[in-house]
Amino acid sequence: MPAIIGGLGIIAFAMLEFVALALGIAGVCQSDRRKTFSVLGIVFVLTMILGTIFIIVVGNMIEDEPAKPQEAGSGRIDVMREVDTDSR
Fold this sequence. Notes:
By secondary structure, the protein is an all-alpha fold. The protein contains two helices and no strands. The longest helix is centred in the first third of the chain and has 28 residues, at about 1-30.
């Protein structure tokens, strides 16, 4: 479940980054305004997009460890039990 929430968070964050990039480009295209903050916004957004891509690539390169089987007596209830037929 945490992986799903993390994945949805990354998708939402990426969508917000592209909205911010579009607003920065729109600010640069306006002729009656100074472009300083628009250019800074574009630089910061591109840095965040590259950082997000880097995090995704590194996360995909990490190998998961296989799950260890639970040991007997670890709090799990065994439904099926072996019946000793030799003692009868």
